[in-house]
Amino acid sequence: MESAKVLAAAFGMSQWVIAMTIVAMGTSVPELVISLVAIIKKHHGISAGNLIGSNLFNIMGVLGVAGALRPLTVDPSSLQSIISLIVLTVIVLIFMRTGWQISRRQGVALILISLVIWGYEIYRQSPQTTAAP
């Protein structure tokens, strides 16, 4: 986590943006690899279960333990990001409503939506847009 703080300071970004991009990507690589291997071996249920289970455990388990050890505060500026993640989750559920499958087109749409959200968050948290007048 110290490296993420140093990176945030070096690029003039908030720790929230670094955590939401670099740290999140780094911790998600194992899930991505497992899901890709499962899909290649035609074990689609493992892929979906891995991703959903990982996200649920991170939210409830990791965040729960951290909050139990020390009260957590969430920066009010993060609320917009949290809302966008909830909306993205709803979009995934809408995409999965037909036979619990996500088509290639829908997968590409999810990737593009995620990139737009990340780009917007980086722009929103950049020093030029957060500086006081």
In summary, what is this structure?
This protein is mostly helical. It contains 6 helices and no strands.
Task: Describe the structure in your own words.
- By secondary structure, the chain is mainly alpha-helical.
- The chain has one domain.
- 79% of the residues lie in helices and 0% in strands.
- It has six helices and no strands.
- The model has no long low-confidence stretch (mean pLDDT 78).
The total beta strand count reads: 0
Return Rg in Å: 17 Å
Oligomer: single chain
Strand content: under 5%
Termini gap: 31 Å
Number of helices: 6
Can you write the helix and strand succession as a string? HHHHHH
Structural class by sheet pairing and helices:
mainly alpha
| Overall pLDDT score | 78
Largest sheet geometry: none
> How much helix is in the residues?
over 70%
Identify the overall geometry.
globular
Query: Could you say how many structural domains there are in total?
Result: 1
List unreliable stretches of 5+ residues. Answer: none
List the SSEs and their pairings.
Blueprint: H1 2-11, H2 15-40, H3 44-69, H4 79-95, H5 104-125, H6 127-130
Helix pairs in contact: 1-2, 2-3, 2-5, 4-5
Name the descriptors.
mainly alpha; 0% strand; 133 residues; single chain; 79% helix; 6 helices
